[in-house]
Amino acid sequence: MSYSNKTALDIIANRKKELAIKEEANKPSHLAPIKYPQTDFFIADIFDTVTYRSDLASMEYPLFALKAGDTRSRVYEHDGLIISIDPNRYGVATMHDKDIWIYCISKICQAMYEGEEIHRKVRFTIYDYLKTTNRHISGSDYERTKEALERLKGTSIKVESENKKERIARSFSLISDWYIVEEKDGRMIRVEVEIPQWLFNSVANKQVLSISPDYFRLRRPLDRRIYELARKHCGYQSSWKIGLDLLHRKSGSTGDLRKFRLNIKSLAESDELPDYILRFDHNKDMVIFKKRSKNK
If you ran DSSP here, which 8-state letter would residue 193 be given? Predict the structure, then answer.
């Protein structure tokens, strides 16, 4: 091979490397940056001793929509259980709205840990909530929190089940009540959220699981749903396998299976799912979750 040909091949190889690096850099990240890397001295940092927690029921069943502005009713059926989710005029509560649930559950768990009396009503400031869940603290973010409360209160859940002797149905909202104190300039300073009795009972009976703080950094609602399914089903196991079609149904996704497959592939390639390594088996259409090493 002549020197000139070798030089040309080197140039082509280097160019390919540069393009590959550029393509990798331009890939959208599934994780948002940490907005507040240092603990704000003025935040009541309630999670020093108790980690973020979510309830088992909402981790198992798709109670929350994966699309903002979704106004459709949805029905989920599994093992004889029928769950109907209906919106009000504000739409149905989304996976991002669920952050309020997680925040309230974590506050109750912290109170239990400290030996305090616990209540269905949880009080906090929106400033603390926004910073703790890795959100911005602009006026529009305060307004979005109020809209999330409206959707949580207005979303109606009906659960029906049947056995050999009887059929049971119950209905509830995702939160029972909410209360906000605003200053005259419109700034919201204090919030009180009353969670449903069944959710309070679940938390009091410790039917909850810890979740990673990086959960709040996941940009896509579907990624959050995939994470909580992995957390729920892996439990204390080292790994969990599930067929893509079943994962699609359990996620509550209203998109087609082809698009869902692409989303799972993208999440697997990014290797950004907190706590778990996600692998997709193309031949078997199988998704495998494996616990990350704590040292990683």
Answer: E
Of residues 234, 245, 290, 232, the one with CA closest to residue 58: 232
Query: Cα(136)–Cα(114) distance, rounded to whole angstroms?
Result: 29
Q: How many whole angstroms separate alpha carbon 286 and alpha carbon 245? A: 9
Q: Same domain for 272 and 195?
A: no
116 and 257 co-located in one domain:
no
Is residue 252 located within the same domain as residue 206? no
Per-residue pLDDT of 147-162, as tens digits, reads: 999 999 999 999 998 8
Residues 120 and 241 in one domain: no
Q: Please report the pLDDT score of residue 4 as a whole number.
A: 55
Give the residue numbers spanning the domain of 61. 38-215
Residue that is written with structure tokens 């990240």 in the block:
29
Q: How far apart are CA 134 and CA 34, in angstroms?
A: 7
Closest by CA position to 212, among listed 149, 133, 146: 133
Distance CA 122, CA 109 (A): 11
DSSP alpha helices (H): ranges in the chain?
3-26, 56-60, 98-113, 126-132, 139-154, 197-204, 221-234, 244-251, 257-270
Sign of the alpha-carbon torsion through 224, 61, 132, 66: positive
Does residue 115 sit in helix, strand or coil?
coil
Q: What span, in angstroms and rounded, lies between the C-alpha atoms of 89 and 191?
A: 22
173 plus 109 within the same structural domain: yes
The model carries a pTM of 0.85
- Partners of 291 in the beta sheet? 276
